[in-house]
């Protein structure tokens, strides 16, 4: 591919020539830079960094985040917490309401095994279930109350939080130690200034919620906010104590579209092979919706995403359609793609893309790649 | 859930009360009915039935399709073919162009091991690679030429097929035995009449392509067409010899929207738990885009799909938004959903939904469920 050669990306392709496609290739050097940048941003703001492990789903990368200064990790499922605990993590926040008895008992087992385990709650019903199970096991579970700062997903408003927090504080077997939220960038526009405003708003809403709760006599220690696009701005607000970004370790095309990073900072790309060139303006690759996540779609925020991935070295190419095993790329009619060419693509959303792959290939600076099973992939429980 | 009780679906929920959510539950009786209906339709039209295994990805269900009269199976990847061969399949069509040397050699190994293996081709470049590898191994691979009948994905036009088929026929190591196409329902409207017209068109285009090739001296034995929505109509056209539907074994909400089946015929549902009820008109379940595929989106064909799944027993509920672990269901403010309730949902697209799950639970008529690992899940190579 002469286009790609011209842009210097052919070296990495040569180095990974032996890999079967489609697969995810991760550049180790870029991970290091991304980990370091977020750790420094957190340190600068004086907040704890508790990365969400959903992006990589790999204990070895969580350990590297800890080594760079993270105080613990975040997951969404008890099954993910189990994988991460088995991989050496000792401070895990399940930022999700556990409702089922089996899940709650699994969480308690982790806690009894010596993990500092924190669980999200956003309802009295959910908190009561945690309370009963913990009392039965003779232990105390640490919980954080989820605040809705505008996403209208889970969580309660700052005002509703006061009554609920009092009820939770009255339950045995659980200890309410903090509040958390996820707001993301979807409410913001697409520019860095918008993100700054959105992050500041997120931080202010949480700081204010903590104040209201403390005024009501609830001891709130941790005030925890998301997310890769908003965390560093939210962290600037007095009263925020912790950030939980996830995507930053790899970055992705959505983050680049938000202005959070450059496309070159994206550590994870999909390597795919051209299997057909049925027309001058159409290239078919061997990866479709089983290879690239479709949960961040063209036409949804961030609005100027065209297609499902960025083709490295060919910014005009558009991965416009996908079936499960086919990716249909609109290309310039004069472009030189041939059957057998290997392309690299930056997916729109890397977290859900990683979840589709049993393994990823981590490539070192020397060009050697290593297959790493995605240990916490497909953990739904 | 009083709504669901009223509709009689509570019995199945009781029977699977012990399952952790989110998970896929499959009703065995419905599978039997769906397998039988398609087998009878194929027999009625006098065509061979070669189901696409991408829907279930389970050797045991492929064997049941064979027992009901299927002549072989279809897959998209050599890795899927390997799983299916290990599960007892002896007649496998990889309806996909194999381009990489490793993949081609893996296909040849299956062929040498006694599997009747057929491989798709749609370019001279691809055919030459197969030819060279087969000659090197001293064997002959059976291939089918892919015809584009309007989807503009892979495949060549009937006219272009003549020259290409002659070139392929001149290569050693491969034997061109047939032609195939995939058209699907996306080109059709949404009514049964539209599908009938689309299926007839697909059959006529393929029958005509076979005639052109035979007139040019190419011996075409197999004329193979898709798909769950169009297969039974395409099969009515003289000259079509084989159909390759996949989804029919489970059916899904997209097929129901196309008018192919009723929602009650859908054998596979997602079982999920309500984890939050943050507002009267909003219910949050513990499954999002890691649980439900997003490749068939609201607002795309079939156009009257609202949301990402149908909530069994509550047709007004809309699974309107998803993040990876959260499903946001808009509900009637008076509905009685509570934290801890378990719901069943029919996903828009079951094939890509199954691909997200490490296992499915097959429930027999006696209500006993059995976990079955999705053996060919995540096979990308």
TrEMBL record, chains A, B:
Domain of life (superkingdom): Bacteria
InterPro entries tied to this protein? Ala_racemase_N, D-amino_acid_metab_enzyme, D-ser_dehydrat-like_dom, D-ser_dehydrat-like_sf, PLP-binding_barrel
Q: Which UniProt keywords apply?
A: Lyase
Look up the coiled coil feature and give its residue ranges. Answer: none
The family database entries (SMART domains) matched by this protein are listed as: D-ser_dehydrat
Domain (D-serine dehydratase-like): give its ranges: 267-364
For this protein, the record's Pfam families field holds: Ala_racemase_N (PF01168), D-ser_dehydrat (PF14031)
The family note in this entry says: Belongs to the DSD1 family.
Identification of the protein by name = D-serine deaminase-like pyridoxal phosphate-dependent protein
| Native source organism of the sequence | Paenibacillus harenae
């Amino acid at each position: 591919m002469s286009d790609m050669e011209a842009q210097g990306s052919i070296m990495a392709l040569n180095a990974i020539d032996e890999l079967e496609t489609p697969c995810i290739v991760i550049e180790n050097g870029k991970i290091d830079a991304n980990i370091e940048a977020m750790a420094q941003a957190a340190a600068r703001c004086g907040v704890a960094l508790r990365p969400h492990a959903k992006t990589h789903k790999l204990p070895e990368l969580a350990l590297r985040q800890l080594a760079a200064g993270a105080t613990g990790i975040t997951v969404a499922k008890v099954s993910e917490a189990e994988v991460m605990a088995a991989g050496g993590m000792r401070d895990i926040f399940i930022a999700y309401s556990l409702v089922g008895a089996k899940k709650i008992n699994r969480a308690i087992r982790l806690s009894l095994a010596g993990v500092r385990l924190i669980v999200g709650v956003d309802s009295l019903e959910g908190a009561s279930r945690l309370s009963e199970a913990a009392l039965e096991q003779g232990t105390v579970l640490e919980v954080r109350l989820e605040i809705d700062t505008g996403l209208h997903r889970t969580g309660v408003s700052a005002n509703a939080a006061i009554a609920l927090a009092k009820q939770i504080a009255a339950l045995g077997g659980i200890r309410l130690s903090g509040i958390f939220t996820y707001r993301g960038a979807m409410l913001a526009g697409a520019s860095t200034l918008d993100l700054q405003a959105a992050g500041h708003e997120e931080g202010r809403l949480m700081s204010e919620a903590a104040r209201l709760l403390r005024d009501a006599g609830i001891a709130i220690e941790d005030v925890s906010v998301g997310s890769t696009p908003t965390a560093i701005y939210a962290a600037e607000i007095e009263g925020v104590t912790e950030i939980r970004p996830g995507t930053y370790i790899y970055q992705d095309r959505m983050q680049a579209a938000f202005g959070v990073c450059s496309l070159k900072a994206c550590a994870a790309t999909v390597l795919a092979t051209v299997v057909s060139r049925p027309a001058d303006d159409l290239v078919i690759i061997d990866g479709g919706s089983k290879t690239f996540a479709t949960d961040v779609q063209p036409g949804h925020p961030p609005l100027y995403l065209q297609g499902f991935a960025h083709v490295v070295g060919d910014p005009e190419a558009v991965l416009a359609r996908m079936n499960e095993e086919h990716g249909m790329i609109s290309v310039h009619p004069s472009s030189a793609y041939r059957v057998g060419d290997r392309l690299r693509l930056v997916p729109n959303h890397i977290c859900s893309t990683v979840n589709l792959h049993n393994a990823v290939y981590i490539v070192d600076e020397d060009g050697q790649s290593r297959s790493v099973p995605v240990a916490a992939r497909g953990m739904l429980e």
